[in-house]
Every structure is written in C-alpha cells, then in structure tokens.
Amino acid sequence: MKALVFHGPGQTSWQDVPDPSIKDGADAIVRVDAVTICGTDLHIVKGDVPEVAPGRVLGHEAVGTVVETGGDVRTVRPGDRVLISCISACGRCRFCREARYGQCRGGGGWVLGHTIDGTQAEYVRVPFADLSVYPLPSALPSHEAVLLADIFPTSYEVGVLNGQVRPGDTVVVVGAGPIGLAALATASLYSPYRTIAVDLATSRLAAARDFGADATVGAREEPEKLVEDLTDGLGADVVIEAVGLPEAFEMCTRMVRPGGRVANIGVHGKPATLHLEDLWIKDVTLTTGLVDTHSTPMLLRMTAAGRLPAAAMVTHRFALDEMEEAYDVFSRADETGALKIVLGGPQHDAVAVPPQEQ
Q1: What range(s) does the Enoyl reductase (ER) domain occupy (predicted)?
Q2: Rounded to two decimals, what is the model's pTM?
Q3: What is the chain's mean pLDDT, rounded?
C-alpha cells in the first residue's frame, strides 16, 4: 500500500510500505476513506516532536471502513464505516478508568502517527478498536466526520472545558487556525458574553468572524489593549492558547483577569517564560492537556444534527495520493487560506437519506 512516511525533519515521502496486519486480538484493520492533516503533523515534520522516529507513517485522524478485526473486537465488524480517534484507549489502566484516555498507560494514548504507524495511508491498524473507533451515522459525510477525530474534541476538552467557560464570560482565543475556530464554535455552547479572536492572518480573522467571534484583532495590532478596553481594564475571564508559540502563551497570561483561566491547547516545541513574578498574586489558573476524546460521541451527535459547523472548516479537498501537495498547501496556510484539508475520494462520503425514506 501507499503511505506518507516521515524520514526526519523536513523530509517526508508518499511511498510503498507493507500492508498492516492484525497484531493483537483487540486490533482492527481499517481502509482509509478520508483523512486530514493536523497542525501537530507539521510540528512533527519540523522536528518539534522527537519521539517520532524516521520511518513512521504519519497521521492520527481518519474515517474509514473496517476490513478485518481481531478475535477480541466486539463493537465493530468488517464493512462498518467508522471514525478513527486520534486517541487509543486500553480501557483497563487507571487513567482509562477515569476517562482520561490521553494519558493511557496500557499501550494507548496518542500512538497513531506518533509511536506506531498512522492514518495517512491506504490502510491502518487501529489498536484497542472497541474504544478507539466510533461507528458513524449513515447521513454524516466523511469530510465532516473526520474533523471529530481530533480538532473538535481537542478544542472542546482542552480549551473550553479546561478553561471552564461559563455564561457571561469574556473569552479570548489566541490563534484562529482550525483548533482556535473549533474553540470559538464550542465555546458558544456555553453562552459567553463576548468572544475575541487574535491572529496574524487577516483571512483567519475573517474565518473567526464566520465562526462566531464578536471581535477580532491582528496579533500586531495591540490585542492586549483591545481586551483591556473591552473589559474596562479587568482582562478576559478565559484565554485559550491555540498557537503553540512562546509569545502566544505569554500574551495569553497578560490578557487574563485576576481569578481567570488560561487554557493552553497549542503544541509547544520551545520553552515559554512563565512570569510567576506577575501571576502569583492574581489567582490565575493555567491548564495544559492532551485530548482524552471522552466527548467524541456527544460531538458526533451534535455534528450529525447540524449543531457544529464542521463542514465550514474544510477549505481544500485532495485525492489520497496527492498527500505531498496537500501538505504543501496546508503548511502555507497564510498564503493559501487553508483551514482543514481533507484527502479521500467523495465516493466514500455518506449520502443523506430524505426523511420520508428513513
């Protein structure tokens, strides 16, 4: 089969690799029907995630069709159309029992495209299939469903829930890429008073307005002053970091009010300065996290019902074998306007059934 293989910082290729096979009774082999590229994949290619070894097949998000299952798999069978979660869960360790699947110590957590071969391929082996794939509603198209593999649960759990967004809050999202836009969309579920998006790119600020931001500001246009003015000098109740750069994180800590919350989502490849000399007295809560995906079933239901704007996130479509071109377009998002790129043939998309035929 073909797959996108990482060969070291700055080096990838779409090439022949061996087909995956069942290694454990809990495994499933899934034909990849739709896959997307994550900002984390770009961090890997840049060399920011040294745990990813050369030779690894990248990718951790996909929709596909089950073609084979191990003898212990009970919840899916060959022919089922499924969402492949970015997080795998053994279901037995302490953290899985607490629904903190991202911290799984039984061989799961973030493994696809990280410590085992991932989803940017024609086929993928998914460990712990009973807890790591989700059967899909027939009416939910693949290009929408695939966004529930990572960015929506990540934004919701690590941004909105960790940040404890509440009705009436002023929420600032620093970074209006896909993760930041999903944070804006899911924060709106809690009726904040005002949402503010910060980004360098005017195209992404425009997208943020489409995703519900009440105010937008360029990262070089004194966003801290805008937040101060809009909150009568108090600062934001919740600030969500969705970039992964030291200057973005440090900006977030300057915009939060006393007693407020900073929720870091971004993947950081360099140290950031934590100014405790300013923060210690402000009762500020800082959170970090890897997504657990405990919210995926709920988010899938909401997307199928049209309550989350997943389709609006997809700006580019490619065939699976155009992976290298898709990476180039995604890596130049400031020029191309790319938000989420979906690869895979439209022949695999679900077709909505008219109500009278259901």
Answers
A1: 8-343
A2: 0.93
A3: 94
